[in-house]
């Protein structure tokens, strides 16, 4: 199913009326962010953002997360080249989850799969439903 794409985010344009302070950050100052392919709706991955990651994402149009393991900003694709260009950012009804509609370059998952959600549970068994992409 193809979803019409909104125009790309203009990094220079402020988000009128958006106030990140109204988001419900956890006690570590983080909020979960779901990355979804803006073209076909595939859920690609879930990661975390802090205020700096959100600000950088909105300022540059390139999705940036907060790495909890490295305790630093993680500019998606900075080393792999598998970048995410922000098409639209959405906030859920409770304001405690972000949805980033993205244009994904290459696989989103560090396992070289298009999506991090490559394992299904079917009839009580785990089934791999996406193979790694060939280099």
Automatic annotation (TrEMBL):
Stored InterPro entries: PRA-CH, PRib_AMP_CycHydrolase_dom, PRib_AMP_CycHydrolase_sf
Cofactor field: Zn(2+); Mg(2+)
Listed GO CC annotations: cytoplasm
Cited Gene3D superfamilies: Phosphoribosyl-AMP cyclohydrolase
Keywords: Amino-acid biosynthesis, Cytoplasm, Histidine biosynthesis, Hydrolase, Magnesium, Metal-binding, Zinc
A Pfam family it matches: PRA-CH
Top-rank EC class of the record's enzyme: hydrolase
Cofactor binding: number and manner: Binds 1 zinc ion per subunit. Binds 1 Mg(2+) ion per subunit.
Domain (Phosphoribosyl-AMP cyclohydrolase) ranges: 45-118
Residues annotated for Zn(2+) binding in this entry: 93, 109, 116
Residues reported in the UniProt entry to bind Mg(2+): 92, 94, 96
Keyword Glycoprotein applies: no
Catalytic activity: 1-(5-phospho-beta-D-ribosyl)-ATP + H2O = 1-(5-phospho-beta-D-ribosyl)-5'-AMP + diphosphate + H(+); 1-(5-phospho-beta-D-ribosyl)-5'-AMP + H2O = 1-(5-phospho-beta-D-ribosyl)-5-[(5-phospho-beta-D-ribosylamino)methylideneamino]imidazole-4-carboxamide
Pathway(s): Amino-acid biosynthesis; L-histidine biosynthesis; L-histidine from 5-phospho-alpha-D-ribose 1-diphosphate: step 2/9; Amino-acid biosynthesis; L-histidine biosynthesis; L-histidine from 5-phospho-alpha-D-ribose 1-diphosphate: step 3/9
Primary location group: cytoplasm
GO function term, MF aspect, one: zinc ion binding
EC number per UniProt: 3.5.4.19
Domain of life: Bacteria
Family: In the C-terminal section; belongs to the PRA-PH family. In the N-terminal section; belongs to the PRA-CH family.
Protein's recorded name: Phosphoribosyl-AMP cyclohydrolase
Organism, scientific name: Albimonas pacifica
């Amino acid at each position: 199913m193809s979803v019409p794409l909104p125009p790309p985010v203009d990094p220079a344009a402020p988000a009128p009326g958006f106030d990140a302070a109204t988001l419900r950050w956890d006690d570590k100052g983080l909020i979960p962010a779901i990355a979804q392919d803006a073209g076909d709706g595939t859920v690609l991955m879930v990661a975390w953002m802090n205020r700096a990651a959100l600000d950088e994402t909105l300022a540059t149009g390139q999705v940036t997360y907060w790495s909890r393991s490295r305790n630093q900003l993680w500019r998606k694709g900075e080393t792999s080249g598998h970048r995410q260009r922000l098409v639209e950012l959405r906030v859920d009804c409770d304001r405690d989850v972000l949805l980033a509609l993205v244009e994904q370059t290459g696989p989103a998952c560090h396992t070289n799969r298009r999506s991090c959600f490559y394992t299904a549970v079917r009839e009580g068994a785990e089934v791999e439903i996406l193979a790694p992409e060939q280099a």
